[in-house]
Amino acid sequence: MTTVILLFANGFEDAPPPAPEMIKLGVSRNGAWSGLALPLDELRGLAVSVHPTEVIRFQVEDSLIVVQTRSFGGVAQARLVQIDAPGRWTVSAWSDLDQARGLSLDWSAQAAEVPMARLRPVR
User: Fold this and answer.
1) In sequence order, what DSSP letters do the residues of 18-33 get, joined into one string?
2) What pLDDT digit, counting tens, does each position of 76-115 carry?
3) 46: part of which helix (H) or strand (E)?
4) Which residues, other chains included, contact 70 with Cβ-Cβ below 8 Å and sequence gap of 6+?
5) DSSP strands (E only) in 1-123
6) What's the whole-model pTM score?
7) Burial (CB count within 10 angstroms: exposed 0-12, middle 13-18, buried 19+), residue 64
């Protein structure tokens, strides 16, 4: 006899595709900020639902940094979710992509601290 137990109603069939491979980023040891221009038009195009979607993953030292997008009230938005080595989560505020001319992922490491990251819209 076989018993079927449903843990999720739809088995995630309607979930978005998994995020791309993780990209490793180097970090300056002097505490200076580094930056990487993100593909703004592509991020806007991936903001298709009110639900956050992981679109890009980065690794800086032992921290995982995930860029998420969503469409809220018809406005494309992005934010960062960072998980450091001890397992602490940091979630940034949503940034409006529709008014931006560019978008930069900035990151830094301070002495004896975990890497910090931020999304910086270029207006």
Assistant:
1) PPPPEEEE---TTS--
2) 999 999 988 888 888 999 999 998 999 999 988 765 565 6
3) helix 40-46
4) 47, 49, 50, 51, 52, 53, 76, 77, 94
5) 22-25, 34-38, 53-60, 63-72, 75-83, 89-91, 95-96, 102-108, 116-122
6) 0.78
7) middle
